[in-house]
Automatic annotation (TrEMBL):
Source organism superkingdom: Bacteria
Signal peptide (UniProt feature, chain positions): none
Name of the protein: DUF1330 domain-containing protein
DUF1330 domain location: 3-95
Taxonomic source organism: Bosea vaviloviae
A Pfam family the protein falls into: DUF1330
Length: 96
């Protein structure tokens, strides 16, 4: 079974307090579900389109595990706290 990667990019953050509250809840929810946070922050370098966006990469044992964590009550609670505090794009991609 291939690993899976949950990749989140933040186009904008309009409420840093909501983002901080989200982080306090989402990290433990993700880790409890077996996720391993590999990357979190702004790019050191950018190429091609050169978008300087906060990026988070989380590794899971499978796409199904990543989906289960995303859909879990604990993570959904974190999302509710974030509300419209950030415009993001989340993708779950199966490893090669």
């Amino acid at each position: 079974m291939a690993k899976a990667y949950w990749i989140a990019t933040y186009r904008s953050v309009s409420d840093s307090d909501a983002l901080a509250a989200y982080a306090k809840l989402s990290g433990p929810a993700i880790i409890a579900g077996g996720g391993r946070i590999l990357v979190r922050g702004l790019p050191a370098l950018t190429y091609e389109a050169g978008l300087q966006q906060r990026t988070v990469v989380i590794e899971f044992d499978s796409v199904d595990h990543a989906k289960q964590v995303h859909d879990s009550p604990a993570y959904q609670e974190a999302l509710a706290v974030l509300g419209k505090g950030a415009e993001r794009d989340i993708r779950i991609v199966e490893g090669a």
